């Protein structure tokens, strides 16, 4: 059922399960944080580009880590689920911050096992090329596509597309397609870099013994 949710539009995509640290300095969002703290409210982060986009992620305030003499704050938050904005209000009733009438997006979390293994292989190649194998080692065995969202070189629009998918299978297909496109380019770039290292250097070669 639609409900009113405080909104904090930002130029970023937040995936469910993600922990996000924020520095709060504008008076309207300081008020939002205080309301969340005092009334146990959640709030939403919709993507803002040239306008507030339709989809966003519901956030729970975990803690206020630091309050500055100016009233600014450092906060820790956790992302919950995805929602769609039905109606946007520049100001919530009697408040400084924005709000929206939102509906939750129902998600099918079931993954495809074969796609999971295929993506795992692509990731191994990707992180080997980038020298980031430790990122793969940090992933839990049962990781979700959301856990990969910020580590694949996706543009903001591609991340938003991932957020808009309503099933784990659809997200797996998007990630597999992305990796199938970028891996050949990265592998070729690495091959050219290796070749360029051999050019312009003195080479210690053993001639054939006729």
Automatic annotation (TrEMBL):
Lon N-terminal domain: residues covered = 4-181
Give the SMART domains listed for this entry: LON
- Report the PANTHER family cross-referenced here: ATP-DEPENDENT PROTEASE LA (LON) DOMAIN PROTEIN
What name goes with this protein?
LON peptidase substrate-binding domain-containing protein
Q: Source species, please?
A: Hymenobacter guriensis
What does the organism's lineage look like at the top? Bacteria, Pseudomonadati, Bacteroidota, Cytophagia, Cytophagales
């Amino acid at each position: 059922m639609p409900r009113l949710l405080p909104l904090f539009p930002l130029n970023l995509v937040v995936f469910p399960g993600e922990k996000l640290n924020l520095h709060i300095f504008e008076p309207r969002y300081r008020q939002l944080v205080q309301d969340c703290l005092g009334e146990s409210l959640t709030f939403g982060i919709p993507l803002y580009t040239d306008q507030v986009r339709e989809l966003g992620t519901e956030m729970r305030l975990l803690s206020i880590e630091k309050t500055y003499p100016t009233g600014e704050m450092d906060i820790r938050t956790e992302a919950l689920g995805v929602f769609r904005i039905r109606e946007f209000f520049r100001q919530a009733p009697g408040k400084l911050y924005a709000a929206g009438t939102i509906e939750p997006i129902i998600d099918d979390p079931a993954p495809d096992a074969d796609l999971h293994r295929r993506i795992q292989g692509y990731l191994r190649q990707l992180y080997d090329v980038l020298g980031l194998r430790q990122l793969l080692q940090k992933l839990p065995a049962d990781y979700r596509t959301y856990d990969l969202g910020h580590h694949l070189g996706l543009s903001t629009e591609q991340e938003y597309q991932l957020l808009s998918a309503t099933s784990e299978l659809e997200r797996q297909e998007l990630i597999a397609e992305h990796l199938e496109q970028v891996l050949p380019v990265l592998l070729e770039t690495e091959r050219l870099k290796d070749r360029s290292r051999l050019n312009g250097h003195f080479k210690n070669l053993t001639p054939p013994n006729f």
